[in-house]
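Handout, page 2. Input:
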Amino acid sequence: MGYVSLLMLETQKSLIEAGAKYAETTGMIETNSKAIQHWKNFEHIQHKRKRCFIKRF
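Output:
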């Protein structure tokens, strides 16, 4: 288990103990599958998208 996984686990435990029912995340690039996977076990909706575009001159 990596550091980020341990951090997420401890954060989730603390939020459950505090009675939190909802959480809001910052924007994540929509192709960042590793960041998105942290939320796969929760009921969720995607209502924000973040994209990066490159324009060559």
